[in-house]
Design brief:
- The chain is mainly α.
- 77% of the residues lie in helices and 0% in strands.
- Helix 2 packs antiparallel against helix 3 and helix 2 packs antiparallel against helix 5.
- The N and C termini lie far apart (86 Å).
């Protein structure tokens, strides 16, 4: 099966639900509740499938790494907005405004995904790899294959894309499919930079102290 078409169908479902919700008023609280429940379910299922099946086949290839890491971060924003919308009463005047922000974020994400990401993915995945991903995504959409990415990758173990990923990592992914694993890489990188800065600052501080002691010694003489 074609993984890109399957994901595009999900995007269309979400787009239709967002349009319906966008037309609701504060007085349509019950309608909002029902439609939002459908939207939340669609988005959560879709993001889980992408994070555990589709993105792992792309994230360590140089051509698709950057845009895939960005996609994980965009998913995090969407998840936060979904939670906030769920917590707010549907007849609250701020609910519609927050829905608009969610809609804009989702539309931006879909535009980049169906454009740049899919275009690059088609270049690095051969026909067999695409079909394997498509079958895996289809199984997950039908309610199976809900396990983490480690087993998802096992089904694609003989494909070139996964061999490249595992070779680049040196190990098999064993954790869950949460997008939080991606920010942790960025945080780790930040810590390294921060540590380097601290060492540099200490070095400069040491130099200043040494210089200050030298000046005092000179004055005494």
């Amino acid at each position: 099966m074609d993984p890109f078409q399957l994901l595009k169908k999900d995007h269309q479902k979400v787009s239709d639900l967002l349009k319906k919700l966008d037309k609701t008023e504060e007085s349509d609280a019950s309608t909002r509740e029902e439609l939002f429940g459908q939207l939340k379910n669609e988005l959560e299922t879709h993001t889980r499938i992408e994070e555990t099946i589709f993105y792992p086949a792309l994230e360590d290839n140089e051509q698709t790494k950057e845009i895939t890491l960005e996609a994980y971060e965009e998913h995090n924003v969407v998840k936060t907005l979904l939670q906030e919308l769920e917590d707010i009463k549907k007849d609250d005047e701020t609910w519609g405004a927050k829905l608009t922000v969610l809609k804009e974020n989702v539309e931006h994400h879909v535009e980049e995904e169906e454009g740049e990401m899919f275009s690059k993915a088609k270049k690095i995945l051969n026909k067999d790899e695409r079909e394997a991903l498509g079958d895996r995504i289809n199984e997950a959409k039908r309610g199976r294959g809900s396990e983490g990415p480690a087993e998802g990758e096992a089904e694609l173990a003989n494909t070139g894309a996964v061999r490249e990923i595992r070779s680049a990592r040196g190990t098999t992914r064993t954790g869950g499919g949460s997008a939080s694993s991606q920010p942790s890489r960025l945080r780790a990188s930040s810590k390294k930079r921060s540590s380097s800065k601290k060492r540099s600052m200490k070095s400069r501080a040491g130099s200043k102290k040494s210089s200050s002691r030298g000046k005092r010694s000179s004055k005494k003489k």
